[in-house]
Amino acid sequence: MTFVCVPDFACNPLIQQAMALLPILIYPDPRLQKIAAPVSRVDAEIRQLVADMAETMYAAPGVGLAATQVDVHLQVIVIDASDDKSQLQVFINPQILTREGECEGEEGCLSVPGIYDNVVRSASVRVRALGIDGEVFEMDAEGMLAVCVQHEIDHLQGKLFVDYLSRLKQTRIKTKLIKHHPRLTA
Ligand code: NI
Question: What is the Å distance from ligand 1's center to 137 Cα?
Fold first, then answer.
């Protein structure tokens, strides 16, 4: 594992806890289909979860991670869609308010390692969520960030990008991943 330096993240006074890497569930683990519950209060436990999820995402490396993927079934997402990995974004209890347009692009997922395929998403979305400070914010996302937000919110609803693919492709992907991760059950 290579150490990833994330200056902005490390400097955030709200996230000063020691961080830990969390194991990521691999498709077709049935726990990836669980529906995440809303967070009732952004407390120290949630901030620790966010810190651990961010470290896990940067180490993988990935552009986004939902709590569902680390077997915590709460509505928490971390995303960093920046080129230099300097813009950690935290979405707690995220909701998509509006959607516009359509775009198709290749997606991958830390829970579906080595698999990439095209998915059609909304081109831009307006999102409302709580930040790591517990305050409500709204933001407009487009491009890769918009795709990432939709992909991660899907995880919180127990849905993966492979669910948009054909049955045949899903079966092939399951077979391949079970073969490479023999401890998994389908
Ligand atoms: Ni994913």
Answer: 23
* One-letter identity of residue 44: A
79, two tokens? 């995303």
Active site residues: 152
Q: Note residues around ion ligand 1 (Cβ under 5 angstroms).
A: 109
Regions of the chain short of the pLDDT cut 70: 1-18, 182-186
Q: What is the 60 CA–ligand 1 centroid distance (Å)?
A: 12
Check residue 144 and give its pLDDT: 94
Please give the distance, rounded to the nearest whole angstrom, from the Cα atom of residue 53 to the centre of ligand 1. Answer: 13
10 Å CB burial of residue 7 (0-12, 13-18, 19+) is exposed
